Automatic annotation (TrEMBL):
Residue ranges constituting the ABM domain according to the UniProt record: 7-73
SUPFAM superfamilies registered for this protein in UniProt: Dimeric alpha+beta barrel
Name this protein carries in UniProt: Antibiotic biosynthesis monooxygenase
Species annotation: Marinobacter iranensis
Superkingdom field: Bacteria
Length: 108
């Protein structure tokens, strides 16, 4: 399994709207690609901004190429991103997942 990590920053005022937009673009397109296994979005506050980290999980690098194109190190951005004053990372990181375990019990 391969994890693909992408980060961006948005002004606090756009955080909720951009998160919904991220579901409609990146998550929707990813999940429609064969080999997509799942996704997580992380959020943290910075000075007057919110940083969002999107991690998607894939069967293999070929599945990622089907989503991202041949240069899988480049972020896939969308034309409407500018409306959210997005500060995107232009590259992504890939990791081989060597352990993944979640409790069947929900905590929180």
């Amino acid at each position: 399994m391969i994890a693909r990590e992408w980060k961006c920053r948005v002004p606090e005022a756009h955080s909720e709207g951009f998160t919904g937009y991220l579901y409609e673009t990146g998550i929707k397109d990813s999940s429609a690609t064969p080999g997509f296994l799942g996704a997580q979005i992380f959020r943290r506050s910075l000075a007057a901004k919110i940083e969002l980290t999107l991690i998607t999980y894939w069967d293999n690098l070929e599945a990622i190429k089907a989503f991202a194109g041949n240069d899988i190190s480049q972020a896939r951005l969308y034309p409407e991103d500018e409306a959210y004053q997005l500060e995107p990372d232009l590259s992504v990181q890939h990791y081989e997942v060597i352990e993944h375990q979640f409790s069947a019990e929900q905590r929180g």
